[in-house]
Amino acid sequence: MTLPLSKELTAPNGVKYTQPLGLFINNEFVKSRAGGTLTTVNPTNEEEIATIYAAEAEDVDLAVKAARAAFENPEWSDITPEARGALLNKLAGLVEENAKVLATIDTWNNGKPYSVCLAEDLGESISVLRYYGGWADKVYGKTIDVGPQKLAYTLHQSIGVCGQIIPWNYPLMASWKLGPALATGNTVILKPSEQCPLSALYLAQLIKEAGFPAGVVNVLPGYGPKAGAAIASHPGIDKIAFTGSTFTGSMIMKAASQTLKNITLETGGKSPLLVFDDADLDQAVKWSHIGIMSNMGQVCTATSRIFVQEGIYDKFIEAFKTQVKEVSKIGDPFNEDTFQGPQVTKQQFDRIMKYISDGQSEGAKLVTGGTKHGDKGYFIAPTVFTDVKDDMRISREEIFGPVVTIASFKTEEEAIRRANDTVYGLGAAIFTENITRAHKVAAKIQAGMVWINSSNDSHFGVPFGGVKQSGIGRELGEYALSAYTNAKAVHGKLPLLRPLQYLKANSLK
Amino acid sequence: MANLPLSTTIKLPNGKEYEQPLGLFINNKFVPSIEGKTFEVINPTNEEVITSVHEATAKDVDVAVAAARKAFEEGAWPKTTPSERGRLLAKLGDLIERDAELLAFIDALDNGKSISLARGDIDIVLDTIRYYAGWADKVHGKVVETAVDKFNYIRYEPIGVCGQIIPWNFPLMMWAWKIAPALATGNTVVLKTAEQTPLSALVACKLVIEAGFPPGVLNVLSGFGKTAGAAISRHMDIDKVAFTGSTAVGREIMKAAADSNLKKVTLELGGKSPNIVFNDADIDEAIYWAYFGIFFNHGQCCCAGSRIFVQEGIYEEFVEKFKARIKENVIGDPFNEETFQGPQVSQGQFDRIMGYINHGKQAGAKVEIGGERYGNKGYFIQPTLFSNVRPDMKIMKEEIFGPVAGIAKFKGIDEAVKFGNDTNYGLAAAIHTKDLKTALEVSNKLKAGTVWVNTCIATNSALPFGGYKESGIGREQGKAALANYTQAKTVQINIA
After folding, report:
1. Which residues does B90 contact at the CB level (< 8 Å), separation at least 6?
2. B21 to chain A nearest CA, in Å?
3. Cβ within 8 Å, pair B134-A138
4. Residue B384 CA neighbour count, 13 Å, CB half
5. Residue A436 with chain B: CB contacts under 8 Å
6. How many CB pairs under 8 A join A and B?
7. What is the ipTM of this complex?
8. What is the spatial distance between Cα B59 and Cα B223, in angstroms, rounded to a whole number?
9. Catalytic center residues of A
């Protein structure tokens, strides 16, 4: 199929814009070499949005050549760190100017509510780009005093060409990947998801407009098994960063192992939320609702397993049901009142419905929801299971939908043990007014992030990532910088002693 | 002057006009001084009055401190997140960039530096403000594990109301070096500009309002050291004082801080920095840097390379070539794009420098070039080089702060180090050599806060700058400056 390289589109909210359809390589949109394409679908009404070019191995090859040339080109390699920061700040400004269009694209393509997408997804992307713009000239090596005979120092250097594979749940989380990679002088091949690639292509135009030299950022939409696999195993790529399912993450790690690529992964979660009987119940209900129902439950850090201390168990469930009823308004994501849009694709919809059915057949009690919502679009009613046993599938596996399990516990020790009884370790939340318990439990939970009296309340200055099978490495904050730099130690021998003396001092007696 | 208005229209030598605020900047407003005092601002190029401005006395300092205290403890500023503080500074940077040309003209008019140098100053103003805008939300404390039943962490909190006293040699640049790290870390500021050069900071304060800083966060007072400056250093409600200027005044400030409330003190003072040229240096490069080191900004640079030491093997050649280079120095009207050297900033400075030149002559130093006034209007002095100098001469011991250097020869590394360190100062030093061993050994041994190798007077927002010995206390620029404006609070929570 030959497609044009761009197309005028009109979104459901009336916004008209030009959607690039090509692969973005060397600051240009081009056709895929093998002619591969993929079609994007509006999950609200199941209609097609646009068909775009899809990258395969040959395109990845071209992008790698472009990225390598850009990495070695003085136009990028020799500019000051401050200049890199200025480019990121420029990009942030352009994203800010184009926020409404980008939010429109993601709402259309992903189904997330527009008001949330504009305020949160876009707000955060802009902040993240600026944040890393500010880090660019503050990445330091050290001088290390090992005595007068050496000038020993470290250089924190860019890694090189970085492959970055991002998911569909927050398409503009591209900023989390681009920010630290570009701040530290790397070049990038970014593969957005096949489900939601459109906003990344629009962003590519802004990257060019900001003034990044050709080849510094390349954007290749495509399928995981084709483009993603090609990136993970390409010998010309020095580092892989992946966000997505644990299953795919493990395949990426295997592929990367052949050439021992530097790898960071942010994978799945089954994050526990503990409500102790001294918790502020209103806050616990508010945040535990946010923690599982936001973004249609399609959040890696969703606190999807709620454990409530038995003294307030019944009260909590009633309050939670009420919260779902009052807040989880399902509808067209472009509607201002909508809290919950559709799930992103039919495949996700089917997967979640299967878990719901499993939950019921395993004997969990369905307290609300559990059904499809409406006849068109991939909408699922917000679903609450109680009396859930820890060995049920719905309690162990990541559902990635608006489905929460609630169980009761007796003691703090039991809560911690059951919270940790998972292969995952991404987020966790604790609700208690007791400061000693809060910080003690936070230290004992096996998770990369712990929220005390909130959930999913992240900030770009604070590191983000998982332990156990939830990932390797950290994003956000200063911590992301070490994912994109290599420390090189330089030992400079200082001949302050005349050579003979030096030998004497070091000779074995 | 009775009833001085709060602003006036000033016409620049290039014909452009602009609105110059004249008042004291307190609580985001320009106000007259309580005691009605004013003082004149002189154009050093033609010795004429540019305008008068309102003059702050101790009473005005009290009002400004009260405003800064209120802004620190209450209202919008303490609620502003670190990232938001960074955004405000970034916006201020954008506005300064928008008005860069005007601000450069004002500094050239007020200080006498050439327009090309003034533009360079504004570039540094922008760099500095943007650099600290980026630090605002990256000031991290640590969590320290001591035992399993303790949760310990360190917070870096702003110090509070910071008094800042800046010099006249780089008016807006010094303003930026002071306010940027202070505001990035959440402090509030009462800043006194130099009485010789109050104009550009007041114009920049309009941009501070436009950027959206809450009232009272930054307050800028025009005034004199003995009155307003002293009031700041001894004020019981100022938590910290930062001063850049002469070592003599620095001592006074430190005494006043000790006598009052032991406010924290950082000082960036004078220098008598050596420029050391080895036989194997690239001689043309070394000439350029030695020249730049003492004649840049008319020698009005705390880190000026005012003592030049040349290894005996190339001494004669160096002196001749250096004199030839000095002759190429374009002296003249700062508003001429070709000009490198404008007038000294004031009559007072002019007299002082001429006094040193006379001392040098009387002490028996040889004037290789220069040694006289330049022209007969404006505070211009000929670029001057003394040879046949001895380390005990006043011109070799004291900071002249003008386009006057002393040059002497040395034998080897040991002598170079000895001569270089033979001073109570320790701000900077420069070494010119192609030999890595020499460069590393000498830079390790020189007692100076910055050592330049094969360059000179190269500062960067990212690199700490400050003095050893009597050249100062603390470091500005780089991450280091954040320590001047934060204090560590250790919190230990018993979680047994």
Report:
1. A89, A130, B129, B130, B133
2. 31
3. yes
4. 27
5. 493-496
6. 62
7. 0.88
8. 12
9. 266, 300
Question: Residue B89's closest chain A neighbor by CA?
Answer: A134
Question: Are the CB atoms for A388 and A406 separated by under 8 Å?
Answer: yes
Banded model confidence at residue B1, pLDDT cuts 50, 70, 90: low
A495–B496 C-beta distance less than 8 A? no
Residue B368: band (very low, low, confident or very high) from pLDDT cuts 50, 70, 90:
very high
- The mean predicted confidence, pLDDT, of chain A is 96
CB A168 within 8 A of CB A344: yes
A contact residues 399-438, partner B, Cβ 8 Å cutoff: 435-436
Cα B395 from Cα B358, distance rounded (Å): 10
The whole-number pLDDT of residue B133 equals: 98
Please check the confidence at residue B51 and state whether its pLDDT lies above 60.
Answer: yes
**B73 CB-near residues (< 8 Å, 6+ apart):** none
Do residues A111 and A341 lie in contact, with contact meaning Cβ atoms separated by under 8 Å?
yes
Q: Which of B134, B441, B495 sits opposite A496 (nearest CB)?
A: B441
Higher-pLDDT residue of B77, A150: B77
Catalytically active residues of B are 268, 301
What is the DSSP pairing of strand A150-158 with strand A143-144?
antiparallel
Choose among A165, A430, A451, A172: nearest CA to A295: A172
CA–CA gap between residue B207 and residue B192 (Å, rounded): 18
pLDDT for residue A493? 85
Angle at A508 between CA A506 and CA A509, to 5 degrees: 120
Q: Which residues contact B178 (CB under 8 A, 6 or more apart)?
A: B164, B166, B189, B191, B242, B244
A134 neighbourhood in chain B, CB within 8 Å: 86, 133-138
Whether the CA torsion B340, B343, B345, B350 is positive or negative: it is positive
- Tens digit of pLDDT for each residue in A388-436? 999 999 999 999 999 999 999 999 999 999 999 999 999 999 999 999 9
Chain A contact present for B82, CB below 8 A? yes
Tokens of B173: 């640049």
Interchain contact A133–B (C-beta under 8 A): yes
A132 in contact with chain B, both atoms CB, cutoff 8 A: no
Per residue in A344-380, pLDDT (tens digit) is 999 999 999 999 999 999 999 999 999 999 999 999 9
- Written as six digits, the tokens of B493 are 């929570």
Angle at which helices B100-111 and B171-184 cross, to 10°: 120
Q: Which of residues 161-180 of A touch B (CB under 8 A)?
A: none
pLDDT at residue A507, as a whole number: 44
pLDDT in tens, B213-265: 999 999 999 999 999 999 999 999 999 999 999 999 999 999 999 999 999 99
The backbone torsions φ and ψ at residue B482, rounded to the nearest 5 degrees and listed phi first, read: -60, -30
Query: Of A85, A436, A492, which is closest to B495 when you measure between CB atoms?
Result: A436
Any CB–CB contact under 8 A between A462 and chain B? no
Query: B484: how many CB neighbours lie within 10 A of its CB?
Result: 23
For residue B134, give the chain A residue with the closest CA. A134
Contact A134 B137 (CB under 8 A): yes
Considering only CA atoms, which of B41, B30, B32, B37 is closest in space to residue B57?
B37
Chain-chain contact of A478 with B440 (C-beta, under 8 angstroms): no
* A131, A136, A494 ranked by CB distance to B137: nearest: A131
pLDDT at A494: 78
**Pairing assessment for the beta strands A305-309 and B218-221 based on DSSP bridges:** unpaired
Q: How confident is the model at residue A497 (pLDDT cuts 50, 70, 90)?
A: very low
Say if residue A499's pLDDT is above 70. Answer: no
Under DSSP, the state recorded for B465 is B
The verdict on B462 touching A (C-beta cutoff 8 Å) is: yes
Q: Is the pTM of this model over 0.90?
A: yes
Cβ distance A331 to A337 under 8 Å?
Answer: yes
